[in-house]
From TrEMBL:
Protein name: Uncharacterized protein
Transmembrane segments: none
GO molecular-function term, one example from the UniProt record: DNA-binding transcription factor activity
The species this protein was found in: Caldinitratiruptor microaerophilus
InterPro entries tied to this protein: ArsR-like_HTH, P-loop_NTPase, RepA, WH-like_DNA-bd_sf, WH_DNA-bd_sf
Length: 470
């Protein structure tokens, strides 16, 4: 190679480039087992090294391997093979437990249990690596993200009462005072404790803790009445535990003490009932978003640490249309249930439901029970369609049914009466009015013009109008 007249030819440049040492490609950091839970090459080996209770393993999906752990590493009370670990073909690892009380658990959480201190070792290894490459250390964060696959692997809602309450959920049952919500809550508690179907909804048998902060004096008679009405239903003596004093939800000491008490039970409670919210906020203001928010935080802590469904009994406002106090409560809960008493006819309706469709309104009866010693109490029970129809067929009209018949008679000037007119005039809740009209149609008291959607009385209906119209 020579240089003439100061000119460098392309051929000379190629020769120079050929003499240069080849450029070294940047090295990819080696995958190290201590650099995070997703970098374990063989999770089966890792599980065995750390004593995981593997009871089954095998192919899963498209090339993945699934391991079943029993008992659950996070909660030894979960002994129905509910915990799992999956290693996907790309090396990614998922883990969890199908119980709602373990919702959100992942492989990092499993590593906390089986390999304590791994996060410290991980951060130390990352710090060493940052020092080697001159990176600035990142601030620690409490936030963690889930991939789509992680989300799809999350367990489905674990229903304690099918279509009504999920384990680990927070719900509110509200009504006007003296409507029967405590009778209803006791009925629900005893059905869950015995594992029998409640109002047509399947239940999963479990321990119940009932915080009865008011109305304790009649508790014995109420339980006796329920047992009298449900003879043959086995309810273990210790299946329901009654706490006959309020738990102050704004007091950390009270909440700590309550959780310590539940931790001494043979198994975690499946359902915890607080009756009522007002009694469990002795120094709080129901209208204060701050106080209600703190109460919700306490309830969230209780359901998180116990895995139980939590039901809070509450009252309506003066108008009787909504729950009393701050809307922060409604915004925080998973279910809102309202019990309405319309002239002696009870209806339980679902106002809001986070985990699925709202259940259909339930027609209920508060029935008097005569006890063997001459005392009386009441029980709540489902009123069947057949019972309602048979009563109407025999001419026995309930006050709310009579009110609808009288309203149609009073407003019908030859053109029938619309639904909106009936709803506005009778002030009957929609679910109750719909059921009344269906029953009156089925028994021949009312007829409906399907095209114009207006209601008129039949001859039988006219014969049943109150005497004040004659």
């Amino acid at each position: 190679m020579s240089l003439e007249d100061g000119i460098v030819t392309l051929e000379m440049m190629d020769q120079l480039l050929a003499l240069a040492p080849p450029e070294k490609a940047p090295e990819r950091p080696a995958r190290r087992q201590d650099l995070g839970p997703l970098w374990i090459d063989d999770v089966g080996w890792w599980l065995r090294q750390h004593g995981a209770p593997i009871v089954a393993e095998g192919p899963y999906g498209n090339g993945a391997t699934k391991y079943i752990l029993n008992p659950c590493p996070w909660n030894p009370a979960h002994t129905n093979r509910s915990a799992f670990v999956i290693q996907w073909p790309d090396g990614h690892i998922s883990a969890g437990c199908h119980h709602n009380g373990c919702q959100g658990k992942n492989f990092a959480d499993l590593r906390d249990v089986l390999e304590p201190g791994w996060r410290t070792r991980l951060e130390r290894a990352r710090a060493e690596r940052r020092e080697q490459v001159g990176e600035r250390p990142r601030e620690p964060t409490k936030f963690a993200g889930l991939s789509i696959r992680d989300v799809l692997d999350m367990p489905a809602p674990d229903w304690l009462i099918e279509g009504v309450a999920v384990r680990g959920s927070l719900s509110v049952l509200y009504s006007q005072p003296k409507t029967g919500k405590s009778f209803l809550a006791l009925d629900l508690a005893l059905h869950v404790a015995s594992g029998v179907v409640w109002m047509g909804h399947a239940t999963r048998k479990g321990r119940v803790v009932y915080v009865l902060a008011e109305g304790q004096g009649d508790l014995s008679n109420r339980i006796r009445a329920w047992l009298e009405q449900h003879r043959g239903v086995p309810v273990p003596d210790d299946a329901v535990t009654f706490v006959l004093r309020p738990v102050n939800l704004l007091s950390q000491a009270d909440v700590d003490g309550f959780l310590q008490y539940t931790a001494t039970m043979p198994e975690p409670p499946a359902l915890i009932i607080f009756d009522t919210l007002a009694r469990c906020l002795p120094a709080g203001d129901e209208n204060s978003a701050k106080d209600v928010g703190e109460a919700v935080q306490a309830l969230d802590r209780i359901r998180a640490e116990t895995g139980a469904a939590v039901l809070v009994l509450h009252h309506t406002n003066k108008a009787g249309q909504q729950e009393r106090g701050s809307t922060a409560l409604r915004g925080a809960v998973d279910g809102m249930f309202v019990l309405v008493d319309d002239s002696g006819s009870l209806t339980l309706s679902c106002d809001a439901m986070r985990y699925g469709a709202r259940f259909d309104p339930l027609p209920l009866k508060l029935e008097v029970v005569n006890l063997p010693d001459g005392q009386t109490s009441c029980v709540v029970r489902f009123e069947t369609h057949r019972e309602r129809i048979e009563a109407l067929e025999s001419g026995h009209l309930k006050p709310n049914q009579q009110k609808v018949i009288d309203t149609i008679y009073d407003l019908d000037h030859g053109d029938g009466v619309s639904w909106s007119q009936l709803e506005e005039t009778t002030k009957t809740p929609k679910a109750t009015l719909s059921r009344i009209l269906r029953d009156l149609e089925a028994t021949g008291y009312v007829t409906k013009d399907l095209k114009r959607k207006r209601f008129r009385l039949t001859d039988r209906g006219k014969d049943s109008v109150s005497s004040r119209f004659h």
